[in-house]
Amino acid sequence: MITLEAARRVVSAAEEKAREIGQPMDIAVLDGGRNLKSFARMDNAWLGSIEIAIDKAYTSTSFEMSTEDLVSQAQPGQPLFGINTTNNSRVVIFAGGIPIQRDGQVVGAVGVSDGTPDQDQQVAEAGVAAF
Amino acid sequence: MITLEAARRVVSAAEEKAREIGQPMDIAVLDGGRNLKSFARMDNAWLGSIEIAIDKAYTSTSFEMSTEDLVSQAQPGQPLFGINTTNNSRVVIFAGGIPIQRDGQVVGAVGVSDGTPDQDQQVAEAGVAAF
Amino acid sequence: MITLEAARRVVSAAEEKAREIGQPMDIAVLDGGRNLKSFARMDNAWLGSIEIAIDKAYTSTSFEMSTEDLVSQAQPGQPLFGINTTNNSRVVIFAGGIPIQRDGQVVGAVGVSDGTPDQDQQVAEAGVAAF
Amino acid sequence: MITLEAARRVVSAAEEKAREIGQPMDIAVLDGGRNLKSFARMDNAWLGSIEIAIDKAYTSTSFEMSTEDLVSQAQPGQPLFGINTTNNSRVVIFAGGIPIQRDGQVVGAVGVSDGTPDQDQQVAEAGVAAF
What we know:
4 copies of one chain form a homotetramer. In chain A, helix 1 (about 5-20) packs across helix 4 (about 115-130). By secondary structure, chain A is an alpha+beta fold. Chain A contains 4 helices and 4 strands. The longest helix of chain A is centred in the N-terminal third of the chain and has 17 residues, at about 5-20. Chain A is globular, with a radius of gyration of 13 Å. In chain A, about 40% of the residues lie in helices and about 20% in strands. In chain A, strands 2-1-4-3 form a 4-stranded antiparallel β-sheet. The interface of A and D includes residues 64, 80 and 87 of A.
């Protein structure tokens, strides 16, 4: 369970970090069943990042890991090459999705998109830290 | 253009009305390009209403009318029978989606789902009124 | 949370009822997040019922009601006419899907398909009773 | 033809191996027509592996080979590069899917997902051996 109040705390903290680094972002929080709980597209953030933000959170809930951890494994010749076309092609293999945990259980995830992978990761981390 | 600040004002007013009538809701605001701007799933609101809320707003932006206005036209034998399977079946033909206008132009829409059509409509109206 | 052991108990009881009435069935159990937990296609059951069984359970989890309760509301002229084309057209509007509850909370659902609506409902009820 | 009884024998043997190596798995058996026959998601197995398990079996039935055999051929510059986006992107190109044969004919396949490719392969092999 992740409440709307908790999901919004995550989104707000991510937004604050995004403003701090001067990069508008699309930010999504999904619950542990991979269903959307809260979403915000900051002004001037990319349209193409709406689904990427949501699907990064989807990916992190699906595999209980950050999307950053998929980067190296999903390269050609690596064990999970091709994973991004599974699950109706909703698996994102670059940084910006991080699971949200309570007592060691994944209860949801945040997904952030529009900046560089480093920026997305940084903003997602700020979001998770506020949970 | 609809700012995140304005979109959230719409969501908040809708939420307040939903709490007032004691019915948790899924609430979405899309911009004039039919792209998601803000979303909230209130605690205990249906999972099935996530997409319905988003798609009611999608419908209202698509056809610049409330989804309530589609109800009679989409019945068997009526002029728009079958419209709900167009646009990748994202067209919703019951109440709860209302366009958001500025100076007579549709700049977005709100979509609300989980209650009766009357409740959804009432909550969506409260949202639009706050724009 | 619904364990695999509990999900299988539901499937087994549904199967037993299906054999009793002499009608092979497709039987699915989803968890509260609408994700598949257990599935069985009995020998000679329809291929077309694979997705219907899964999607009946999807529908019952999505709207926290039996699909039988959607039948009258989804008819032309009724409040939810058109709901079957929402959620990527995964909403099924005839009997055979029933929520599984624990302490008043929906923790999943069973979906059954291949017989008449009455048979599907009866088999689904036998499944839920075993939870 | 693969009976439900035989499909379950495959799933049970795979489960037993998964427990033995201490890795919860999603396990699917499809028939020779690529249609789902039996499925089990072990407790604590990834949600993202539901579809991957089913689609590994889909892939092995589709091309009458193990998904492991696709790995090298699907790399950049190799003959089947891009095959994972065919068939509505249901083709999985890492280990864990194995055809089930009777008298030299492919009558179905098992798909396993959630561990390393080696673990998935090992568990799938245990399943097939029980057929």
